[in-house]
């Protein structure tokens, strides 16, 4: 049985399920962006780094990758309601076709802020892709264009998601139990 700092982890998504869904999303994205000559994928750090890495390796198109480092939770388990940009992208996205990739859509605050922030840089196309969607937790209205799995309102860890900065390296996704 797995645990982090004594908290029991319950398996939610096996790595085979994740891999299969990542491949499906990649093929959809490939179809939708095949006419994009200047395709750029922006992964959100830190949580989105594993999903972004797996997704881009399954998209068979010429593309560039950049990262935006953004934080909302600090070290607590609850969203603080505001986000901080810790590192902006290095790329000029004017007139480019851009896909933002993140691990999870929860209250929607992060992706909506980032969407608005990047929209001001005048990309020609701006879409969003998340592996996990906690639909029931939304505080602001936001719908991602590509969603891997709808997940229950539990604290999740693994495949890039952390609990107090631990667990990002787990290949599966787990729920952290209360005791
Ligand atoms: C997490 C996650 C998303 C965001 C989603 O990031 O990676 O970016 O929260 O939550 P929201 O929809 O309620 O805004 P976090 O701020 O925990 O930082 P991390 O990516 O470094 O784990």
Explained architecture:
This protein has 179 residues and is α/β, with parallel strands linked by helices. It has one domain: 3-Layer(aba) Sandwich (Rossmann fold). 21% of the residues lie in helices and 32% in strands. The protein is built from 3 helices and 10 strands, in the order ββαβαβββαββββ. It has helices spanning 15-32, 49-56, 109-119, and strands at residues 3-4, 7-13, 39-45, 64-71, 84-87, 97-105, 125-133, 146-150, 156-157, 173-176. The chain has a 6-stranded mixed β-sheet, sandwiched between helices. Helix 3 (109-119) links the parallel strand 6 and strand 7. Helix 1 crosses helix 2. The two termini are 14 Å apart. 1-O-pyrophosphono-5-O-phosphono-alpha-D-ribofuranose binds at residues 44, 46-47, 71-73, 79, 102-110, 162.
Helix content class: 10-25%
Tell me about the biggest sheet? 6 strands, mixed
What's the CATH class label? Alpha Beta
Separation, N- and C-terminal Cα atoms: 14 Å
- Could you say how many structural domains there are in total? 1
Name the structural class: alpha/beta
Can you count the beta strands?
10
Named CATH architecture: 3-Layer(aba) Sandwich
Give unreliable regions as ranges.
none
> What is the topology, as strand order, of the major beta sheet?
5-4-3-6-7-8
**Per the principal axes of the C-alpha atoms, what is the gross shape?**
globular
Ligands bound, unique: 1-O-pyrophosphono-5-O-phosphono-alpha-D-ribofuranose
Strand content: 25-35%
Order of helices and strands: EEHEHEEEHEEEE
Annotation field: number of helices = 3
**What's the average pLDDT?**
93
CATH fold category name: Rossmann fold
Radius of gyration: 16 Å
